[in-house]
Specification:
The structure is a homodimer. By secondary structure, chain A is an alpha+beta fold. Chain A folds into two domains: 15-156, Alpha-Beta Complex (Nucleoside Triphosphate Pyrophosphohydrolase), CATH 3.90.79.10; 160-226, Winged helix-like DNA-binding domain superfamily/Winged helix DNA-binding domain (Arc Repressor Mutant, subunit A, Orthogonal Bundle), CATH 1.10.10. Chain A has helices at 59-71, 142-159, 173-184, 190-199, and strands spanning 15-26, 29-36, 46-47, 50-52, 80-87, 98-107, 121-126, 204-212, 221-226. In chain A, strands 1, 2, 3, 4, 5, 6 and 7 form a seven-stranded mixed sheet that branches. A two-stranded antiparallel ribbon of chain A has the order 8-9. In chain A, a hairpin with a 2-residue loop joins β1 (15-26) and β2. At the A-B interface, β1, β4, β5 and β6 of A face β1, β4, β5 and β6 of B. Chain A binds a DNA duplex through residues 172-174, 189-192, 194-196, 199, 211, 213-222, 234, 237, 251-253.
Chain lengths: 253, 253
DNA sequence: GCAAAAGTGTTCCACCTACACCCATGT
DNA sequence: ACATGGGTGTAGGTGGAACACTTTTGC
């Protein structure tokens, strides 16, 4: 059950916030939306955007509201926003007990820099795997949240059609493939990728006459739209995360 | 960021709770641990076990504590406990604002009935897919939480070694297969299942001399222990969830 | 012509599927 | 004997990995 006899003011109150890991692809690299903290603790450090739940607001609504505020995007309604998990360790905010519901969001591209609503500064910074990189350690436990979010996104690409959420309304298969390559940090065979995507009904649908040049050179590529499908059967697995040195039975490879 | 200028008593306080969907296998059926509510709202109805976060306790700790209280099990430390997601819709508890972190837990078997800590009554009831079943609609939004938990468990069986968490320390491959069959509601080929499991290094390891009779009849089966591996590569996919009638694209819209 | 990217074809192999078949045990 | 479940063997199909090859553009 959730609540029985309970004096709602008996305990030190919990603050409930949302934290957002917002990813985008920019010039062939994965970027993450960060804000610079204006005051203590962690003043001057980068942090994930986020904020408090309003009294009559679900976490998903708060997350989407924050997403709109921090990115400056108008059409936030259609963006992919996914609950990641909740972080509730007692010491994660030195001031008080803060329980934070973390979300992962995907944005096609963010040409506009975003005005920091209440933050000192906000920026898209290139994502670095090792939690270090161009922005240093993040405030609070946000390095961990960010790593969890990246892992989740990478995993979801395998068995969902999520990759189109990184793309503009019209995109080429090369651009779609680049989403996988950048998020996974691997290279994929263009031919096999193409077949795999086209073999999945509802993943993408071709725009009849359209075509576009991609990198300046090369044959113009056909344009596609996102299809209606959500899941990928069979999945598109990323190449072995662990090499697996040996095993009790190793047929040939 | 998480907190800026903020009067911690300015808002109506949030209560933070954990709710647990605890599954087990009993006599060949999937069971779920439920408690009967003693007071309003939803007095007399069944609900998921759960409770409040203590002031210095992470959600995971609270969940494990509740798990121990409600199941009566002593060795709760080794059980599989996994954060599902957080439910925060404003109206989900009529009395006050309750944000609930839901967990899914797997128990090998529960021979002992559990003493209800603070609940009127607690019981293992056979899980029903359609949220109805032997226990009727659950209190609050627990039907939804339970459905989400079942879906999560079913999905995780595909690509993790989680199934051993349902089994006692020593088990036969037939028992392990039954886990999949019961959770998925399908039948699996014993021969292929066997090969698949044994081909995955670290999924199970055989106990050299041991064997046991299973259903009274039949050849005694070899006994296995859970191995150290966590993930399943390649995954063990359940038979097609959607038949997908026809058409190369545009299934829904 | 050359480089680069799109797009097509083809081969090999891992793995999944399905069944057939033997083994050990209780009734 | 026979039913039942454990365990082994094997043939066929699907799909992914790897790679050769053609096409269309810019330089």
């Amino acid at each position: 059950m959730s609540v029985q006899g309970y004096d709602k003011y008996a305990y030190e109150p919990f603050a409930v916030t949302v934290d957002l890991a917002v990813f985008t692809l920019r010039s062939g690299r994965l970027h993450i939306l960060l804000v610079e903290r204006g005051q203590e603790p962690y003043a001057g450090q980068w942090a994930l955007p986020g904020g408090f739940l309003e009294p009559d607001e679900a976490a998903e609504e708060a997350a989407r509201r924050e997403l709109a505020e921090e990115t400056g995007l108008a059409d936030v309604a259609g963006l992919h926003l996914e609950q990641l998990r909740t972080y509730s360790e007692p010491g994660r905010d030195p001031r008080m007990r803060v329980v934070s519901v973390a979300f992962a969001a995907l944005v096609p591209d963010a040409p506009q820099a975003q005005g920091g609503g209440d933050a000192a500064r906000a920026a898209w910074l290139p994502y670095e795997e090792g939690a270090g990189g161009a922005y240093g350690p993040l405030a609070f436990d946000h390095d961990r949240i960010l790593a969890d979010a990246h892992e989740r996104i990478g995993g979801k690409l395998e068995y969902t059609c999520l990759a189109t959420a990184f793309c503009p309304p019209e995109f080429t298969l090369g651009e779609l493939r680049q989403v996988y390559e950048v998020v996974w940090g691997t290279e994929l065979d263009p031919a096999n990728f193409r077949r795999k995507v086209l073999a999945t009904p509802g993943f993408v649908e071709q725009i009849p006459g359209a075509s576009r040049l991609t990198g300046g050179r090369g044959k113009p590529a056909a344009l596609y739209r996102a299809g209606g499908a959500g899941s990928l059967h069979p999945p598109l697995l990323r190449p072995a995360p662990e090499p697996v040195p040996d095993a009790k039975k190793g047929p040939s490879s």
